[in-house]
Amino acid sequence: MTESADDAVLALPDRTLLILDDDRPFLTRLARAMERRGFEVTEADTVAAGLVAVDKTPPAFAVVDMRLEDGNGIEVIRRLKEKRPEARAIILTGYGNIATAVTAVKLGAVDYLAKPADADEVFAALMAESDDKAVPPENPMSADRVRWEHIQRVYELCDRNVSETARRLNMHRRTLQRILAKRAPR
After folding, report:
1. What is the DSSP letter of 23?
2. Cβ(111)–Cβ(90) under 8 Å?
3. Domains and their CATH numbers in the chain
């Protein structure tokens, strides 16, 4: 008889989980779903609140949004790893790109999930063994979305300077402005 992932959580001595996200409805839904899976959840919706929670009682697990109104969730991952090196943390964001994924993993995040992610995906990422191979996504990013993410990354690296970004991407400035004005493709 094999042990289910839910049973594995219940067998853990420390089931503390910090969820940091500024999307309040998502935060509440995910927190309730993770509580049903046996976690003791602490909710935070700002980097400052996340840092206070980590300093007060470093959790065994964390789900951290990348971009928040008052800063970057990577700061919370960094602090968590200082306070509790064995903690398992994942980055969850709607602004996924390779550079931030690499940074998050270097700082100790065990996975990087793009929004919208459901509670099952979050749970699976938190409980995955370090040598588990990731399951291919059901709905991977489209080529248009990958292009858009790359443009956004270069734009951020150029300190949101449209002319410099256009120069580096070998693109006309007006074309870049039109792309930046549009919503992200699916």
Report:
1. -
2. yes
3. 5-127 (3.40.50.2300), 143-181 (1.10.10.60)
